[in-house]
Amino acid sequence: MNRPAATLLVRHALELDDYPVDCAWSPDGRELAVAGGAGSLQRVSLATGTALRLGSHDPGLLAVSWQTGSQQQLATTGQDGSVRLWDAGASTPGEGRAIHRGMAWPLGLAFAPGGKALAVAVKKDVLVFGAAGEPLHRFADQTCNLTQLLWRNDRELVAAGNAAAFLLQLPPRQTTTQLAFEGAPMTLSLSPDARIVAAGTQDGTVYFRYLASQKKSRMSGYEGKVTQTSWSGNSRYLATAASGANVIIVWDFGGKGPEGSRPLQLESHGDRIESLAFQPGGNLLASGGRDWRLVLWRPGPGKAAAAQASAQQPLDVQLLAGPVSLLRWSPDGRHLAVAQASGLLQLFELRG
Is residue 327 part of a domain? Predict the structure, then answer.
């Protein structure tokens, strides 16, 4: 059976005056905020493909997050140890408003669903701010320095560091549940149904925790550090990639789950995979690597040999002007931002 065709077409390409380290789409998918490693924060219009400089966060930016439920507020973290809020609709450059300053780099920046809270990890603490930047809560003195952070819902967070992860509940419950993990996490991702958290670690392993039952499992044998994890929109598939290989490993969580099963292996890249991302709410997977390739996949179910072979074939392969460093789907899954370390940013439109 032939699969429906899907391709990516370049809508805009522009050269930025900084190398992108992170980017985030506006909730309506009309604009993209791009954080530069030299400190430049820019807003790119999907309609015109033009960039507007919002300001500078010296000496360099680490992450950017666009407030959900709002089109007008951004948050950034920087190498100066600060967390700042920005007016995304500003017409003149600024420096943002600092809501936290410290010596350590803030990590894991994320707005809560609905946009009423913002969280960031600083060493062993998780700081939670209100939408206006006011301090709401501090989860202090966890057992390790925290490097990964995400929201499970608008009241719960998952944070992870070396050999430990924590489920944090905001007041009035205000509880901290430690989840046993092994290894130092390079990536942390939550299934869209909020049931399973997965961490790729430095020791070449992916660890799973089922949050309701506390059941845990792991998949090992990767070549190098597991640096990429991404869930499909229906929470069935987890795509993973490691630093020492050019193959995407996809685990199927349908039925009894991936334990004891053989994963799907997607092979099209000729060098390390630097970024991968499932389409929000969909089943398309995009990957980009050091081989200058942008690849579009549709991993799918089916135990028959023909179905497996079909799911392992890419839908679209494009050779770009350099290695891919970042991939970000728009919230509606119709556009894909592709950034390169050279500063080239391309906005693709999905067809088919």
Answer: no
